[in-house]
Amino acid sequence: MALSKKPIGFAVFGLIIAGITSLYTGVINLDTGQILEALRNGGEHDFVVNHYRLPRMVLAMLVGAGLGLSGVLVQGVIRNPLASPDLMGISAGAGLAATGLLVFYPQAPLWLLPVAAISGGLLAALMIYATAMLTHPTPARLALTGVAISAFLSSGIDFLLIVHPIEINTAMVWLTGSLWGRNWEQFPLLFAVMCLLIPIAFWLAWRLDVLGSGESIARGLGVHVTQVQALALIVSVVLASVSVSVAGTISFVGLLSPHLARLLVGGKHAVLIPMAALIGALLVLVSDILARGLIPPTEFPAGIITSVIGAPYFIYLLSRYKGW
């Protein structure tokens, strides 16, 4: 455990540096004095700092942490390094439900979007489970089933956008994964969900470690395997779905974060969980900074940045596990 403190400390330091950089990044160039003045007293740059850059910074951290945690939990349950919320179809299910709400009920209250996203994510998870139960549910088969379900649900999103082209601009910005237009209104629910589910994730840590040794060993040590698997999947689905409801479908964060965390701190979930959350937060925050700062005033969706990073890594993982 002591060996893990150093990488966690570096990750926290990197997150602080990225957070500070986020406050400087944008079309309007602000110096340190102007930023500090806005943080203390508001003033001329109050909107830019306190109502645009600061909420985006906080939301990027929370969304990334949620996706990183979701990826750790789903990989721990399925015991498949290729599993992640987006590749398993959970993000696509949440995205389809939220897109349907945006298309058919554009004036929906803000609280209804995460409810729809969570419902869609849970439905996608049930589809994966039901499909996998038709055959022997090996880790590889579950992953392939998730990819197929994800493609099916993504086609549903494409269908909605084609049939309802008037709403395509808002939906496309959201579906490519972006924190554009997000503000403090999205913070309370996301923060509350994280505060509620992070302790549950830590409670699951030891049980997921034991489960990794095999279900029979876990049962012998007193772990209720089915209950632990169900709880971990529910927590994973809710974390991914709420994150999707805020920032859209930001791809590969749930895949990259657990892998990078394992390289740095090993496979013990008590350390892996916070490390994956920190890496996820850093990935999304840095992607949002690049999205805003590469060619201002043009802004790229953060999901494009994470895809550019994540897609080659996914191909690398496929080459490593080609014997499955």
UniProtKB/TrEMBL annotation:
Broad class of where this protein is predominantly found: membrane
Where, by residue number, does the polypeptide cross the bilayer? 7-27, 57-78, 87-105, 111-130, 142-166, 186-206, 272-294, 300-318
Entry-linked SUPFAM superfamilies:
ABC transporter involved in vitamin B12 uptake, BtuC
| Entry keyword set | Cell membrane, Membrane, Transmembrane, Transmembrane helix, Transport
Annotated CDD domains:
TM_ABC_iron-siderophores_like (cd06550)
So which residues are the signal peptide here?
Answer: none
**What is the recorded membrane topology of this protein?**
Multi-pass membrane protein
| Keyword Ribosomal protein (UniProt) | no
In terms of InterPro entries, this protein maps to:
ABC_BtuC-like (IPR037294), ABC_transptr_permease_BtuC (IPR000522)
Q: Name one Pfam family in it.
A: FecCD
Where does it localize?
Cell membrane
Q: 4Fe-4S as a keyword?
A: no
Task: Name the family the entry cites.
Answer: Belongs to the binding-protein-dependent transport system permease family. FecCD subfamily.
Name of the protein in its database record? Iron chelate uptake ABC transporter family permease subunit
* Organism of derivation: Photobacterium atrarenae
Name the lineage.
Answer: Bacteria, Pseudomonadati, Pseudomonadota, Gammaproteobacteria, Vibrionales
